[in-house]
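Shall we go through a protein fold together, starting from nothing but its sequence? Label the sequence line and the structure token line clearly, so we can match residues to local backbone shapes. Would you write everything just below, so we can both look at the same thing?
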Amino acid sequence: MTPHGWIDIVTPDMVHPNNVGHRALLDMFMWLVLQTAVDLALTPLARTDAELIWRPLPPPLHPGNWEESSQLCLVEEGLGQAVQAERSTGWQLVNEGTAEKRKIGSSRQQLPARPGTAAPAAASAGVAIGYLQSYTHMGTVLVECIKGCTCPAQEVDAHHTQRTSTTFIKLIKVNATEVVCTMQVTVLPRTSSGGYKFKVTALMVAPFDSLGFHWSENTAAQWEVHDLLSGVYDKKHRQP
């Protein structure tokens, strides 16, 4: 392993592997394939192996860390299930990639835009909005709760100077007052890039208490992950 662990094998966005990371991933893949071939040669599959497939999964590594029945994760065409078309103008579900390498999301290029997004509500839920962050043409939006729930209005700037285009996640704590929570994403008339594009790539909802650790509502997911892996997170949240 490298001297600083994970930090040494990814690019500064904490998402994509660098050259060392690509070599490490290839080494792990080749080791798995070769080791599996050796294991099968020494110990061929038997009837008992087929029976073991149907065993129940082991319990979570962390006690009580079971999946939530009320979780929601919408990506690609699934985003259309949450968008209220009658309240949305100018937003389109687009594929900015290829048929083989899809990059689908709900995108808006110009002003104005106010898409209404509805999602099942829990008493206290964490709503995570996945969005494209890039170095050109990107704008800023205001995310707010407008019906069936309350939450602090927050601005999200999709522009950064690093020459990468990747998905970031904005987490918002929502308190539900009705069965369905309607949130609004509005493109604002100011930009640091010269453009106003904003692309929503995913919508995720889970009970807020099940997130496992204190995730800052004002920090993009990638940088929280950076803090977790580098030890900065422990220093920030260490109990006195």
